[in-house]
């Protein structure tokens, strides 16, 4: 049974940093892209960043330069380093691998 567990969310002031982690279990994911999405209250879920099986990355324009996605295939883990956070980054952040989703972790950025 595939399971994704996110961690690392929390409350931070604008300009601060947070690091999210997502550990995948119940399968082998080295050949799959991994991604982070987010959903703010009243808004649709949106793509934040993806990383391919060979490490190629893709970012939403709103987070380019500020966020960095990475992965550790030996640990079945995908990371999201978030710097220079803004209040508009406030959302529940979800990781996704092979069409499986985690339960989400709340990120709140205060102004």
> How many helical stretches?
0
Q: Would you list the SSEs in sequence order as H and E?
A: EEEEEEEEEEE
Beta-strand residue fraction: over 45%
Question: Average pLDDT, to the nearest integer?
Answer: 96
What is the β-strand count? 11
Structural class: mainly beta
Poorly predicted sequence stretches spanning 5 or more consecutive residues? none
Tell me the helix content. Answer: under 10%
* CA radius of gyration: 13 Å
Report on the biggest sheet.
7 strands, mixed
Spatial separation of the terminal alpha carbons = 40 Å
Query: What would you call the shape?
Result: globular
Describe this structure in words.
The protein has 111 residues and is mainly β. It has no helices and 11 strands. It has strands spanning 3-7, 10-13, 18-25, 34-39, 46-51, 57-59, 67-72, 77-82, 91-97, 100-101, 105-110. Strands 2, 4, 5, 6, 9, 10 and 11 form a 7-stranded mixed sheet that branches. The radius of gyration is 13 Å and the shape is globular.
Question: What are the defining features of this structure?
Answer:
111 residues, single chain, four-stranded antiparallel β-sheet, mainly beta, 53% strand, seven-stranded mixed β-sheet
Short description:
The chain has strands at 3-7, 10-13, 18-25, 34-39, 46-51, 57-59, 67-72, 77-82, 91-97, 100-101, 105-110.
Topology:
Elements: E1 3-7, E2 10-13, E3 18-25, E4 34-39, E5 46-51, E6 57-59, E7 67-72, E8 77-82, E9 91-97, E10 100-101, E11 105-110
Parallel strand pairs: 2-11
Antiparallel strand pairs: 1-3, 3-8, 4-5, 4-9, 5-6, 7-8, 9-10, 9-11
